[in-house]
Amino acid sequence: MRDARAITLAAALAVVAAGCSGSADSDSATTTTPAPESAATTLVGDESGPSIPTTTTIPGFADGPLAEVCPASLVVQTSGLPAASTGPFYSLLGDAPVVDVEQLRVAAPLTRPDGTVEDVTLELRSGGPAVSFRSPIALMAEDPAIVAALTPLSGAVDGRSVLATTGVITLTDRSGAAVIVDPATYPDIETFDDIRAAAVEVHHVTDAPVVDYLRAVGALDEAQLVGGFDGEPAAFVAAQGAIAQVGDVTVDGALLPAVPQWARPVATVAAADAGWQDYDELLVVASDEERLSDECLGRLVRVVQLAIDDYVTDPAPTIELMANLRTQFNPLNRITAPVMTAGFELAIENGVLSRSADTTGATRPETLDGFLTELTGALGVGALAPDDVVSDRFIDPTITSAG
């Protein structure tokens, strides 16, 4: 099924791309594709596909068609463009997603990993440059149509004054946040102690929670921190590795070796080595509003658990989709399928994504108490208990990829 899906997907994306107008270097291309609702009607009516599952019992909640308990449209705001770490959600878009190249969004009838096409539409809205780098929490607070968001746990904590949210499943087991260094320039740097001892300038995005944390716990010295980093590799490359930058091992670790002006490996010092226990891709819902019912979350979270296991087992078709989407969103896209594949492999190697989770997608509140104390102190926000920000009540504990 996977090989056929990849072929169908490539054809579908070619048709969508042909329907878009605008020059190759324009950010104002338009789309002539039909609305997601039309696509949903056509695909769900395909009698050749698998049928909607009959209701079964799973721990805590009954499984069955999502349309019975969920809204017709499931709008999820993400924190960036499609990336290796968000693959499980993009894997649920099926064979022929509808692409909005103006708004940098994609939608399709939600398709379960077993091929079952649900009678609800999943819409994924890109974050980052698509929304002027505004936080998913702020966007969710403004737009009640957004029923959930993918955000780092630290972003959810930092955004609680705007909208209190609860994380119900994590796509990532460990944060990919890291300090990126050139091993040729700094061959002795392996730890944060080494970074401080070398007094290397560390460039970072202004107000990044991970930098506030690393400063607060003493992993980095204030004197060596340089804000204003835009997340692009240009400064690092131009400095020929004389500086370091705070980035993501799954992105920078794969992208920099592919940049012709650099074209060599980089070394990384993981923020997790300093106690950073963030979840980079946490699905959150509003804590005090019922945009999704418990019954809907019980079924949806289980589908996402299965999607995580399916994606980490066979990521290639979804990576091809995500790389094609990025190219449609920006013809100058550098995160090609080979680069994203390298990023996925780094995510597995560094434990950001896992093929051996005891319980897939679990947030493990019981492990977060100390980290939340340090995080809230670093961010200057009120104290929070783990149960204030995450919950495993919708997780099906029988879904595990442990070997």
Could you give a quick summary of the protein structure above?
With 403 residues, the protein is an alpha/beta fold. It has two domains: 2-174 and 279-389, Periplasmic binding protein-like II (D-Maltodextrin-Binding Protein, domain 2), CATH 3.40.190; 177-274, D-Maltodextrin-Binding Protein, domain 2 (3-Layer(aba) Sandwich), CATH 3.40.190.10.
Question: Which SSEs are present, and which pair or pack?
Answer:
Elements: H1 2-18, H2 36-44, E1 56-57, E2 62-63, E3 73-77, H3 87-90, E4 98-100, E5 105-111, E6 117-125, H4 136-142, E7 146-151, H5 153-158, E8 165-170, E9 177-181, H6 192-198, E10 202-203, H7 209-216, E11 225-226, H8 234-238, E12 244-248, H9 252-255, E13 267-270, E14 282-286, H10 294-313, H11 316-329, H12 337-349, H13 369-379, H14 386-389
Parallel strand pairs: 3-6, 3-7, 10-11, 10-12
Antiparallel strand pairs: 1-2, 4-5, 5-6, 7-14, 8-14, 9-12, 9-13
Please state the structural category: alpha/beta
pLDDT under 50 segments (min length 5)?
1-57
Q: Profile the largest sheet.
A: 7 strands, mixed
The CATH architecture of the largest domain? 3-Layer(aba) Sandwich
